[in-house]
Write a structure and sequence with these properties.
Layout: E1 13-16, E2 21-23, E3 31-36, H1 43-54, H2 56-61, E4 64-70, H3 74-83, E5 89-92, H4 97-101, E6 105-106, E7 116-117, E8 120-124, E9 130-135, H5 145-155
Parallel strand pairs: 3-4, 4-5
Antiparallel strand pairs: 1-2, 1-5, 3-8, 6-7, 8-9
Length: about 160
């Protein structure tokens, strides 16, 4: 499925690192940046998540919630979050439902791993509509943070 700007964001319910179920619909009334990333503890994924951590005041200024999603288990994500002092929500899409719904799942990834999330960024507005969508084919690339920030600035 390819996500289109303006469409209603697919809802999901996934476990966070505190073992609680979190749904996208829980964030209704807020702008949300959803960042799908392939695997915790890998170079580019760590760089991306630490970039978000280091720029939280900027995203807070846009009144935006940040959600990171990967196919790692919630236990791996909990350790990743703690070791990198990440102060935003990480969700485990271990069963790959959200990745499929958002069209960002590799059939085959490095080392013949199947079903790993592509790196992707989406902005969901306060009404639950997609305002930004970027799905990267190369796991070594980072999302366009400037474009994400420009989009958020228009939603404030």
């Amino acid at each position: 499925m390819n996500i289109q700007i303006g469409q209603q964001a697919p809802d999901f319910t996934l476990f966070n690192t505190e073992k609680n179920k979190i749904s996208l619909s829980d964030y209704k009334g807020k702008n949300v940046v959803i960042l799908f990333f392939p695997l915790a503890f890998t170079g580019t994924c760590t760089t991306e998540m630490c970039h978000m951590r280091d720029h939280m005041s900027l995203y807070n200024g846009f009144n935006a919630e940040i959600i990171g999603i990967s196919v790692d288990s919630l236990f791996v994500l909990d350790r990743f979050k703690k070791e990198n002092n990440l102060d935003f929500t990480l969700l485990s899409d271990f069963n790959k439902t959200a990745c499929k719904d958002y069209g960002c799942l590799y059939e085959m990834f490095s080392f013949e791993m199947q079903g790993v999330s592509k790196r992707a960024a989406f902005i969901v507005d306060k009404d639950g509509n997609i305002q930004y969508a970027e799905v990267l084919e190369s796991a070594g690339e980072l999302p366009n943070f400037e474009a994400i920030q420009e989009c958020l600035a228009q939603l404030v």
